[in-house]
Structures are given as C-alpha cells and as structure tokens.
C-alpha cells in the first residue's frame, strides 16, 4: 500500500487520504504556484500507527525514507547536512481543518553542526541560530513535552541580561546562549538529550504529529465541531523557506476576501523578519497586507495575482499562508476560508454576480445554522455610547457581560446562565471552552487572524482583538485603561463590528436583513417546496414574522394571552369557580379580550393561514405557587385581615387539589377541553367572532383551530362536534360565515400510531415535536435538558440533544408513520411541524424528506428555515 505521496502526485480531490493541507499543497504545485517541495504521509499511515499499538510500521518507515531520498535529490541537499543542510517542516494536516489544534515543527534537521553550515552558507549567523533555537523550542514543546512557557522564560532571562526587549534585537551570541540553556532545560525536564541525528528528529516529529491527533485540545475541538474521531491526520514534510532571513523576508496569512464582512479585498497580515506562528500567536502585532504594497511592490502584486488565481481555481474565498524569503514569494497553505455568516452571504451573492458559482451553489455556501448570528442584536446606532478603548473589529456583533479573565471560570459562570465576556491578553487553543461559554471575547494582543479572532468568528461570537489600551493584571483580577480600573465581575460591552469597548450595558437593537441576505433568501424561496410559517402569539411577533418572510402562523399559543397581568385574575376566577355558571361568568369576561387579541393577529396576517391552538397547559400554571401562598397566608393571619385571608386559603385549597404528580402528562391539552368544554367554547367563539368581524371589513382571514394533545380519535371527534356547533351559533349571531379548519397537534406516540383514525376528524396535522420528543423518549424536557442530555452527548450515546436536533430514527419514524397513515385516508391532508425543531436546519431537512407541507418556528428563525428548506431541496 502506498503510504507516502510526493506533492507532485496528489491533488485537491485526495483530501481524505492526504488531509486538507497536503491535498491543497499538491493542488497548488499542480497549478504552478511557488510551493516549497515536499511529501505527505497519509491519514491511513496515522490509523495504521494506532492499529500497530502506536508504532510506525517497517513498510511505512521505508516509504518515508524513500520519499526523503527523492526530496534530497531534487533539492540537491541532504537533511541536516553539516555543510549545507536541507531543513524541513513537519506539519499535521487533518481531513477537516482544525486550525491551531495540531502542532507544527519548523527548521527540522538543525543540530550543533548543521547550524554552523547554515550560518556559513547563508552568511547570516543570527538567522541560523534564531532558526535553531526556534526548532529546539518547537521540538521540545511538541515532541518532548516541555512546557512552552519554560522556553519563553529562558528567552526573557537572556533578554533582560542583555538589556533588550524585542526578540528581533537579539544577536547570534544571544541565541547561542539561549540554545545552550534550552538544551539543558530539556535534559533536566525529560532526562533525555535533545536528539542530534536529523533522521531521528524526523521520525520523532512524525510520531508526535500522529499522537497529536489524540491530544486534549484536538479532542475538544472535534467534540465541539462534531468531527469524527477516526479520521486520523496526515503529516506533511516540506522543505523550509525562511521568513526570518532579514528585512526582505517575512511571513503572513491572508484571506482573498474580508472574512468578517465579505468585502472583496485581499485581507491579511504579515510580519517582516519573522517565522511561522509569529503572526498568529499574537506575540507581535502584525502589519496589514496593504502595507506590503509600500515595502515590496513587486511581491505585493505577485501576491494579489496568486490570490485571484486561487479564487478562480477553487471558486471560493481562500485562507492562505505565505512566506517571503529574500524577496521571493512562497505559498505554504490554502484552504476555503472560515467566515462569518455575514461574509458568507456577501461572498456567495458576489460570486454569483461574478459568474464564479450558480444560485444553487450560493445557497449551499451559506450555513443555515450560522445565519442565526446575522439575526443577533447590535448596538443601537442612535445610542450615546462612550467607548473607553478601541481594538480590532475581529468578529462582528455586540455583547455585554461580566468581565472574566479565566477560561475555566468563564465556563463555570456560563453554565450557570451568566453572561460573561472573556478578557485575555491573547488566547490559545486551551481556552476554547471559555470562549464557548462567553458572550464575547476581548484580547489586548493579536491581530485579526489571531487565535481568538478565528475561533470567535467560527462560533459567531463577537470579538475585539489587539486592544492594546487594555492592560490586564491577572493576579489582581482587573484590567486598566489609562486611569480607569475594571474589575473581574464588572459589566462591559464590546462591539466586534467596530472594535469598541464600553463600560456597562449599552442599548441594543433588533437585527434587520441585509440586501444580500434578502437576495439569497429570495433565491431560496424560488427553490424550496416547504412553506415556512412562524410561531407567534401577538400582533407584534406576527409583524416581525412577516418581515422575515413567514407565510402564515403555524402556532399561536393562547395561554400566553391568559398570562398577561390584567387577565390573570379573571383566569384565576375561572379556575376557582365552583359551578359551571360561575365559570361561564368569568369566561364571558375573557371572551372580548381574547377576541381582540385574535383580531389583531388576523389583521396582520391578512390572507394567510393562522393556526390557533386551544388552551394547552395544566391549569395550576395559572395559579400562584403553594409555598408563596403559605407565606402570604401567615402574613395575613398576623395582620388579621380575615376576608383576604379566606380568599387565599381557598386558593391554596384549589392549588393543592389541582396538583399533579406529572403535570405534563396530566390534565392538559384536549383533556381540559373535554372536562371543561366551556373553556374551548369561549375560545372558539373569540376566534370566529374575530374572523367574522374582519371579514365584514373586507379582510380575508384563514383560521385554523387546533386541538392539542390528542391521543384517540374519539377525543377529536367529540371536540370537533363542539367546535362545529359553536361555529354555527357564532355565524348565526354574526350573520356571516367564515371558512375555517379544524385540526390537531400530533404530539403523542399513540396519535402517530393511529393517525389514519385521527385523520378522519382532522383537516390538518401539526407535529408538536417538543412533546412528541418528550413522550417518545420518556425524557422530561425541563429536567433532562440540563441534567441528563449533556452527559448523553458527552458519552456519545446521542450526538445531539433530541430537543434541539430532531431524532430522525425514533421521533422521526413516528412522524413519517403518522404522515403516511394520515395521507392514506386524506391524500391532501395539510401537515406541518410547529415544535422548536421547525427552525433547526437538520430537522427542516428531515421534514422536507418526509413530505411535510410546512415548518413553523420562532419569527427570528424564519430566515434560517427558508434557507434550510431550499438546501434540503437542492
Ligand atoms: P497550522 O495548521 O497550525 O496553521 P501549519 O502547518 O500551517 O500549521 O504551519 C504553521 C506555519 O508554519 C505556516 O503558516 C508557516 O508560516 C510555517 N511553515 C510551515 N511549513 C513551513 C515551511 N516549509 N517553510 C516555512 N514556513 C513554514
Ligand atoms: Mg496553517
Ligand atoms: Mg405540546
């Protein structure tokens, strides 16, 4: 089996075998770009390494040495040669890019002898020893597992002794001193000597890359991003080029378009006289790529042309890494660039205009799950905000939260539901869990491509980076900006679109859809088959939903109307009623109020269907909680107010009488309607009176009356008769008729199993997948989400919470069965979904697959559903 490929042998399609980096290096060689030559050890070799009990097999070893031999011949140099050494980098490259997750080693092949050869050959002693100390440092850290900080403190020691502050000021002798101390440190820490044999160095490095596949931060990254654990990583061995050779050398990273806004401009950063990670590590704040134009106009022009070529070739925005050695440009990496949702949308629309991609491709380029970030709130442009500092606008959006310096603490506070802003000098991959938990990230160092910025953009979190005015003191738990002291726990706000940092909360506004986003959505609308409705309970929500493109209301929950402050007492009076007459008296008071609610909503949704669900929750939800009541009763007793006391005591009795062991499985949904029909009668009256009133005004209304929690066909049959009878009465009274529908929510397994019977009495079905998930799994949603499901996901029993991503196998089978059974009786039965899943992309795709007519979700998720529905169709 072939385990090693020269860059000349591969191409971009071989990603699974060569990893993303290796495949794209080969592709760049193929299209004639300047890439330092090398070879790739495949992901299969990595898997083989683990199969063999963490050992590189003989076969693979000999293939590696053969490839090295070929490379040496091509370059006319030998690895680590004493006179003129070939030096290489050893780079990991997973199939799915995992930025900063795996470790790279540069300048491999240097040792106490070859460093002299390099110095003599290049006539640049400082460069040679700088390269050597970097190599020992990386090798020591990645391969021999000596903490990075230990090396940094040695450098600082030597710098201090020499009275300098910048690495660039260190001379060859300085580095020599550092090197000796490094080697001693490695010996002290590991009991082993730093290896001098170049081939031994190479094999140790390759093995370390294999091992890094299973290091802690790689595992965490894979878990967060749902990347399988059994892909393995490839290893790239590549001839070194040097950005640290002096002032006509440098290294940088760039995006072919702005990854934050999508603007069509090459966007990046570089450092002169620097190597590798210097740019992204945030140790020195880099220069903008535009400045390269002034420093080296020729290289700049060549670079811009390479960017254009790569975009044309890959037909996508690229994220590239490059190095300039003595004025000559080399490409070291290219891949599809990570981008914000905003940028994804703009780039997709622009590329259609430029003729690079078609509309279908454009729709697929925008991750539906990510566009939610476009719908985030931002700082009110009319508000009077006073920034205390300004950094780089590294990831757009605004956030407020309590200042936290420690990622563990951020995680703990985030889990408690607190809003925090993680403030660090710079971040490393070990801080990821803290970024996940935070609302936003603020760093005092690092550029737009620093780790914090890249990760935050990937997660759609606001980030301000390189905010140098912010001076952090971790020990004291505070940061200062000039005279101002901000302590841990204080609230700050950041605006990742402008880079501004503010004290306290600032006023934010609701998002609007950009022209580009509307364009993509209009393309999506042309394609999709699923209709998209919204869940809305008020005219305001209905308006928002319409603005976001909803084609109806799939769920209007009437209980929210019962909860309002001025209504609750009447609702309580209704519940406390001893007799039917008393209850009807209270209901009569509610009727005009509900009617007004419906009129408002119907009017907004003119001409579009509105599903109104009759009362669903258990009645005790409308009564005070017993502990509070008891406290009030004690107080009243002490004061001696007997009248009020009696009322409260009655209330307590009722609360206790209504108490259920499992309220979610208790007296709720259609069961309420069967036990207290007068409640549903009132609601139906309110709905249809509202409809009649508007019809008289010439406003078209399409009411769909929905009966919740039906289990048995006869429940629905009984209630349908009541609704129909009430409707006739209303139409008689109003002297007009409105066309309306009666349907049911399908949210219990039995309803799915007997859907062909239930369908006889239903004009439409709407899956209530929150309850259906709850009852199918037997998980109480309120408890399981916090206490059980995170462990299930952690242990990979479930890949996601089934309350977030629809469980296709279980709940989904029931849905499919109910859909098929229902349509076997009524081929054109209208079927939709109104659970939270209606706005989650993977669930929307499933709904498309089983042939539903519509999904319904919260107003802000309507654009997501429109996009996801189109993606499901493509
Ligand atoms: P990551 O996946 O973390 O970006 P890379 O393997 O891309 O790691 O290496 C990081 C950086 O190291 C590159 O961006 C480049 O600057 C530098 N580098 C890697 N290989 C070489 C090489 N052969 N010559 C010069 N620099 C290199
Ligand atoms: Mg890289
Ligand atoms: Mg329900």
From TrEMBL:
InterPro entries: ATP_grasp_subdomain_1, PEP-util_enz_mobile_dom, PEP_util_AS, PEP_util_C, PEP_util_CS, Phosphohistidine_dom_sf, PPDK_AMP/ATP-bd, Pyruvate_phosphate_dikinase. The active site is at residues 451, 834. Residues 55-292, 301-354 form the Pyruvate phosphate dikinase AMP/ATP-binding domain. It is an enzyme of class 2 (transferase). Residues 418-499 form the PEP-utilising enzyme mobile domain. Coiled coil: none annotated. Mg(2+) binds at residues 747, 771. Keywords: ATP-binding, Kinase, Magnesium, Metal-binding, Nucleotide-binding, Pyruvate, Transferase. Substrate binds at residues 557, 613, 747, 768-771. PANTHER family: PHOSPHOENOLPYRUVATE DIKINASE-RELATED (PTHR22931), PYRUVATE, PHOSPHATE DIKINASE 1, CHLOROPLASTIC (PTHR22931:SF9). This is Pyruvate, phosphate dikinase.
């Amino acid at each position: 089996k072939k385990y090693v490929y020269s860059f000349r042998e591969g191409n971009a399609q071989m990603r699974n075998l060569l990893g993303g980096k290796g495949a794209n290096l080969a592709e760049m060689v193929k299209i004639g770009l300047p890439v330092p030559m090398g070879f790739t050890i495949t992901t299969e070799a990595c898997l083989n390494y683990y199969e063999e009990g963490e050992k590189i097999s003989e076969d693979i070893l000999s293939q590696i040495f053969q490839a090295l031999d070929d490379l040496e011949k091509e370059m006319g140099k030998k690895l680590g040669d004493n006179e003129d050494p070939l030096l290489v980098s050893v780079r990991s490259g997973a199939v799915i890019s995992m930025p900063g997750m795996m470790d790279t080693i540069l300048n491999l092949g240097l040792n106490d002898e070859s460093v002299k050869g390099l110095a003599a050959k290049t006539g640049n002693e400082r460069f040679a020893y700088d390269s050597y100390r970097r190599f020992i440092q990386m090798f020591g850290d990645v391969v021999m597992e000596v903490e990075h900080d230990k090396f940094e403190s040695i450098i600082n020691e030597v710098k201090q002794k020499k009275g300098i502050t910048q690495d660039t000021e260190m001379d060859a002798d300085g580095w020599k001193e550092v090197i000796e101390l490094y080697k001693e440190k490695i010996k002290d820490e590991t009991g082993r000597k730093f290896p001098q044999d170049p081939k031994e160095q190479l094999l140790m490095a390759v093995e370390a890359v294999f091992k890094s596949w299973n290091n802690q931060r790689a595992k965490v990254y894979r878990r967060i991003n749902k990347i399988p654990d059994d892909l393995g990583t490839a290893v790239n061995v590549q001839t070194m080029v040097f950005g640290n050779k002096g002032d006509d050398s440098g290294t940088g990273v760039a995006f072919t378009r702005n990854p934050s806004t999508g603007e069509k401009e090459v966007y990046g950063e570089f450092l002169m006289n620097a190597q590798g990670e210097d740019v992204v590590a945030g140790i020195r704040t880099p220069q903008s790529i535009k400045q390269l134009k002034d420093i080296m106009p020729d290289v700049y022009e060549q670079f811009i042309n390479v960017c254009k070529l790569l975009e044309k070739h890959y037909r996508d925005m690229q994220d590239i890494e490059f190095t300039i050695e003595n004025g000559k440009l080399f490409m070291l990496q290219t891949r599809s660039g990570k981008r914000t949702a905003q940028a994804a949308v703009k780039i997709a629309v622009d590329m259609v205009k430029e003729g690079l991609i078609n509309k279908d491709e454009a729709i697929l380029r925008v991750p539906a799950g990510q566009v939610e970030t476009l719908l985030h709130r931002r700082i009110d442009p009319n508000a009077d905000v006073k920034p205390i500092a300004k950094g780089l606008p590294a990831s757009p959006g605004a956030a407020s939260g309590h200042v936290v310096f420690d990622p563990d603490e951020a995680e703990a506070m985030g889990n408690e539901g607190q809003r925090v802003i993680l403030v660090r000098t710079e971040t490393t991959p070990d801080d990821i869990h803290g970024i996940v938990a935070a609302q936003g990230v603020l760093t005092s160092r690092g550029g737009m491509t620093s780790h914090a910025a890249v990760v935050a953009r990937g997660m759609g979190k606001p980030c301000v980076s390189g905010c140098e005015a912010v001076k952090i003191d971790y020990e004291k738990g505070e940061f200062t900006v000039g005279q101002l002291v901000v302590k841990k726990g204080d609230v700050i706000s950041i605006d990742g679109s402008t880079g501004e940092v503010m004290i306290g909360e600032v006023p934010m506004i609701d998002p609007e859809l950009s022209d580009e986003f509307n364009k993509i959505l209009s393309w999506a609308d042309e394609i999709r088959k699923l209709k998209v409705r919204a869940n809305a309970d008020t005219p305001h929500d209905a308006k928002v939903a319409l603005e976001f493109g909803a084609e109806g209301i799939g769920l209007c929950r009437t209980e929210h109307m019962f909860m309002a402050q001025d209504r609750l007492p009447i609702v309580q009076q209704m519940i406390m009623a001893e007799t039917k007459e008393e209850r009807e008296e209270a209901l009569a008071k509610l009727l005009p109020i509900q009617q007004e609610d419906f009129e408002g909503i119907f009017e907004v949704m003119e001409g579009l269907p509105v599903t109104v669900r009759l009362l669903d929750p258990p009645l005790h939800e409308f009564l005070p909680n017993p502990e509070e009541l008891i406290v009030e009763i004690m107080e009243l007793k002490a004061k001696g107010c007997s009248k009020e006391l009696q009322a409260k005591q009655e209330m307590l009795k009722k609360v206790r009488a209504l108490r259920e062991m499992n309220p979610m499985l208790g007296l709720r949904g259609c069961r309420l309607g069967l036990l207290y029909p007068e409640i549903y009668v009132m609601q139906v009256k309110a709905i249809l009176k509202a409809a009649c009133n508007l019809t008289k005004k010439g406003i078209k209304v399409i009411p769909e009356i929905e009966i919740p929690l039906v289990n048995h066909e006869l429940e629905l049959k009984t209630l349908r008769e009541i609704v129909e009878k009430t409707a006739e009465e209303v139409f008689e009274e109003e002297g007009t008729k409105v066309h309306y529908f009666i349907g049911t929510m399908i949210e219990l397994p039995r309803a799915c199993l007997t859907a062909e019977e239930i369908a006889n009495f239903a004009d439409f079905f709407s899956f209530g997948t929150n309850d259906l998930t709850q009852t199918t799994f037997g998980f109480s949603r309120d408890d399981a989400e916090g206490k059980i499901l995170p462990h299930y996901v952690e242990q990979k029993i479930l890949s996601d919470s089934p309350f977030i991503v629809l469980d296709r196998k279980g709940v989904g089978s029931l849905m499919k069965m109910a859909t098929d059974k229902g349509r076997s009786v009524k081929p054109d039965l209208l079927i939709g979904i109104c659970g939270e899943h209606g706005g989650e992309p993977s669930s929307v795709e499933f709904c498309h697959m089983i042939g539903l007519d519509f999904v319904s979700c919260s107003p802000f998720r309507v654009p997501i559903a429109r996009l996801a529905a189109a993606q499901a169709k493509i």
